Amino acid sequence: MKLRDEKDIIQLFHHDEWIIDILKAVKSMNLPDWWICAGFIRSKIWDNLHGFKERTPVRDIDVIFFDEQHVSESEEKKIEKELDKIWPGLPWSVKNQARMHKINKIPPYESALDGISKFPETVTALGIKLDKSNEIQLAAPWGVKDVINMEVRPTPYFKASKKLMDIYQKRITEKQWSDIWPKVTVYDD
Could you tell me which Pfam families the record lists for this protein (predicted)? Predict the structure, then answer.
């Protein structure tokens, strides 16, 4: 499937029953301001753009939400266990964005979307969820051009800090994305 814009990306996910079922599982948890994000989204897009017949292995399914009332890692682990009861064996990773600023040593986030905007790479600063009508919503605070063009760049938030750019560089080295998706180009700026 050719991808040109956000509508095409939504259609790509709409046609994947496995992903729709995962979205339904997370929606059933009734988490406030929830999204599935990051590599789970990017990998699906890049697999499609590379013409892969099979899905690349899923390292984790990043589920984020924003709840200032229940800010603890133990609460996140409880949600992971509940998701594992709904769909056992998937690599669930749940993080409340209302506490992640402490981990990342930056100012507090205002919402889950604000948290997504502060992810390291534009190609991972993506989220999807189902709305009340079970329609797919796509969050792309830095747009979808980079993920469609398979160009890895730091988000403007990371680019503004030498310390954060060091984290970006380390992640790029560790992830080795172009070994999995050879059409990917990584930029340092």
Answer: NTP_transf_6
Residue with tokens 């009861």: 85
Beta bridge partners of 94: 63
Q: Is residue 87 part of a domain?
A: yes
Kind of pairing between the strands at 136-139 and 151-152: unpaired
**Could you give the C-alpha distances from 66 to 27, 113, 145, in angstroms and in order?**
14, 9, 26
User: Is residue 90 situated within a structural domain?
Assistant: yes
Q: Which residues contact 153 (CB under 8 A, 6 or more apart)?
A: 121, 122, 123, 146, 159, 187, 189
Token pair, residue 13, equals 């996910």
The answer as to whether 182 is a domain residue is: no
CA of residue 15 relative to chain centroid, distance = 19
* Number of structural domains in the chain: 1
Name the token pair of 29. 């948890």
Using the structure block, give the residue that is written with the tokens 């992830």: 175
Token pair listed for 183: 């059409």
Confidence check: pLDDT of 164 > 80? yes
Q: Confirm whether pTM is higher than 0.85.
A: yes
pLDDT attached to residue 5:
96
* Under 8 Å between Cβ of 161 and 167: no
103 pLDDT tier (thresholds 50, 70, 90): confident
* Within-domain flag for 132: yes
Residue 74: which of 106, 104, 99 has the closest Cα? 99
Q: How far is Cα 49 from Cα 69, in angstroms, rounded to an integer?
A: 40
